[in-house]
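Shape matters. As here.
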Amino acid sequence: MGKYNLFGLALFLLHVLRGYSLVIEMKMIHRYSIHSPLYRHFASRYEAIQALISLDSVRLSSHVQNSSDNWPALPPAGSNLGPNTAFEMPVASGATLGTALYFVELYVGTPPQKILPIADTGSDLVWVNCNPCQNCSTFPTFNPERSSSLSYVRCYSRECYALSPTLSCIFRPKMACKYSYGYMDNSSTSGPYIRETISLNSTMGKPLKAHNVLMGCGLNNQGLREVAAEGVLGLGQGPNSFAIQTASLYGGKFSYCLGDYLQPTTVKSSLVFGDMVGDAAPSLLRKPIQYTPILQGGSTFYYVGIEEIAINGEKLPISASAWETDQFGNGGTIIDSGTSLTYLAEDAYEIILEALNVAIAYPRATTMSPQQFDLCFNTSGVTELKLPEFSIILEGGKTFIPPPENYILQVEDNVRCLGLRPITGPSPSVIGNLLQQNFFFQYNVQQSVLGFAPADCSVHN
């Protein structure tokens, strides 16, 4: 979803102590998991993949020119968290503001009120449905009058100007800075901009609080009734996101490890705020972590640089311009936990498709909807499947080699299809979450680097 990119969660907590730092591992539940409030049964994997492609089509439209030019926002003014503390927020899977894949459990205000917002790595604003709310979902809303820690951001303050240079004001329930935020599916939210306390859980069991977190209090929300979410927890790179506002509290690192949510539906994945747990590394990681720069720091999305693509170790003749951003910020490549398939610049995709057509020796096949896939093949009678190695060489020569099942999808019995698709126009290429499965990804927002390593994500189930 761009401002809209939704990255969500549902929480079961595993607490781990690493030296003197506290690390909390959170369990994420995909929207189509049986643990999700939006669980949906699919008759086949093909039907499930079709549903994900449908969500992708909405989400991809929001990836165009979505960079943040706002002035830096202020970090939370106070907290009882020590430096580099790790913390958790409970989480469950969801639907964008039609295309959300995960929900997160959040406790807002004093005393804490439980909120179920969408977690979104492609949006910056933190906001919750507030009472009285127009056009809200049937889920509970946050009641400002019941919180003793809430304060309103003043009109004409620097926080208000950092949010929007237009300096809009709202006069009910009190005169305050007004926020307005729109999404590409035509949903929107507006209301007063507030400071509030968010309660967090530490690995020691001690309740922790992040004070003065800037967020929107949504009183007028349009097009969100079917979303079944109570707000959005923005985790993008922009200054108003939760990840950036609280970075100094947890060391500026958050990470996840996504299991295969197409099979089975009971699989849970993990999200961690804070540094990776040293004791868990031997069982989690299959190889050492590699680090590549996060480009365009300060923009909403997490951009990475692609240097080359290789099939079976042979580098393909793809022009470097296929991966570059233009003078307007269009193009480039983002890593997105909220898009399912991987979408590559059309010129590069055609070369990759041709190489895979040569490398895959199995007889070709068609599906019930052949226009969705450019390469499908039949594996009837095959006992040991042999598929080509697909490598993405990222900036700094760091090589991302996903296993074949991440990019060759079983869509029907004995039929597999290429899980890569072309993307045209100004949109960036997108490394989607299917390609990321069974890899550990760590976002270091303070040093602007992305760490990744093959992993056994099932060890945290």
